[in-house]
Amino acid sequence: MSRPLLPELGLSLQFADPRHRAALPRHKVARWIRHALEGDGEITVRIVDAEEGRELNRSYRGKDYATNVLTFDYDSDPVVLADLVLCAEVVEREAAEMGKTLEAHYAHLLVHGTLHAQGWDHEETAEAEAMEARETEILQGLGYPDPYGREPR
């Protein structure tokens, strides 16, 4: 039985903050995103420092702090066009606080951001539950544990 084909992905991977370059090889980043895509995509992933992350979050969301991932979605039909901006310092701190590997946390945040780029949201409880379930399904399919730390049923 053949495996279903994954969507095509044009990926630009940028490191404004190079501290995690070795932890984010292009082939892994592409794999994580492709598994979260429901159709073909053109996605830029930019790893930034806290200063750039804070400025972007303040400019676009009105929140004066660096956050883990920002998704800028431009189109989803016929191709998902988006920028995913991840703050290296925040990702590293959160991974340590949650007892996760840096790789597992980046995989989760890139899947999370890719789902946002396709219209998934978590503002309402039902949306959050559906999005978390989809993230967990994708990440477990990639060999990672439940990103929310729930025990298997």
Mind explaining what this structure looks like?
The structure is a single chain. With 153 residues, this protein is of the alpha/beta class. Helices cover 44% and strands 20% of the residues. It contains 5 helices and 4 strands. Strands 1-2-4-3 form a 4-stranded mixed sheet. Helix 4 packs across helix 5. It is globular, with a radius of gyration of 15 Å. The model has no long low-confidence stretch (mean pLDDT 94).
Largest sheet: 4 strands, mixed
What is the number of helices?
5
Shape assignment? globular
Q: Strand fraction band? A: 15-25%
Order of helices and strands: EHEHEEHHH
Mean pLDDT level: 94
Order of the strands making up the biggest sheet? 1-2-4-3
Number-wise, the strands total: 4
Classify the helix fraction into a percent range.
40-55%
Distance between the termini: 28 Å
How large, in whole angstroms, is the Cα Rg? 15 Å
Quickly give the structural class.
Answer: alpha/beta
**Residue ranges: pLDDT <50 for 5 or more in a row?**
none
